[in-house]
Write a structure and sequence with these properties.
Helix content is 41%, strand content 20%. It has 407 residues and is of the alpha/beta class. The N terminus and C terminus are likely disordered.
Length: 407
Amino acid sequence: MTSPHSPGSQSALRQRNRQSVVHALLAGGPATQAELARTTGLSNATISNIVKTLTRDGLAITEPTTSSGRRALSVRLHGSRAVAAGIDIGRRHVRVVLASMGYEVIAEEAHALPLGHSADEGMEAAAALLGDLVNRAGIDRGAVIGAGVGLPGPIERRSGTVLDGAILPAWIGTSIPEAFGELLGLEVLVDNDANLGAMAEIAWGERQDATELIFVKVGTGIGAGLVIGGRLHYGALGTAGEIGHTTVDPQGPFCRCGNRGCLETLASTSTMLESLAPSTSGAVSTADIVRRGLAGDSATLRVLDDAGFVLGRVMASLANFVNPQVIVVGGPLSALGDALLEPIRRGLVRHAVPVVGETTQIVMSSLGDRAEALGAASLVLRHAGLSPALRSLLDGKQVEGFTARQP
């Protein structure tokens, strides 16, 4: 006979099943009981019993919902005993999000960063903002189980090192998990910001059922996050999706990568701002592009039309290869809606294989400029899985080794 604590005992089996459900909710966010049964392979009756115990223990909450037109029960993890930090650092900004196990935003804030900031400056600003949010939200520092960091540009996946070609040249060669981890006193995970945007669309946005998705971030740089078969596609080194350096015009402007006529030189926000400079008497910002585009300013709409058509042309090549269900456009211009989407659609339909152009849905991200930080938080929750620290938190025990130092 097996003892109550042996791996084959009924109590051990129940614990493993419970952990499987918790892991599924951490990895994918709120789900119906039927979805949990499909994800974990457990029976509907087992899922129902586990959800009842999690609810009884105060670790989950349920609420009515609809799934495939039928009434269902949505399950989400509950409480702030385990909190994930998501950090998005761009050329001119840092945004920090604190999220609960149940994919609920507890606190968030963004601050400006100086153009050309160093890695130390950016990391210190992020650490200070994180500490401020934790204190203001009244969260115990030991509850922060890790931090996800998103950066624009290629990241060497195995070491988390910023590679040549990044929008932040002063960060090249920096090992983010090592440097940020030492500063924060936390486990730190890092990914390209477009990859995190794609992750956010599935975990937080309106595309939770998409298994083939492309997220294109249009900003100072242009990158794509590729979801293929329900999983992020990284490539051999982790640099897949660097579409900003696709050559569009061989005789075009010089790009910072050393080539000519890259997509980034023709359709990035920096290029748009340069194009609009002659039509305005003062400095123009990305926010001005959005404001003037929505107001119907003719010069702005022309710039958006030119950039959008080129973006659609490159997306067409990508769509021909990947054949996605949906392409989501994110970044600081996402509030423009159809003003940018329409020329992108024209470029896609003109240059894609007809069946691909006709069936690929193109939408703006509903998450706006929060997508990358939200994706960074979900990166932590996905990888936290059933780590000893998280198991201790779920069991109500004190956690050691996960207390962030005061920035």
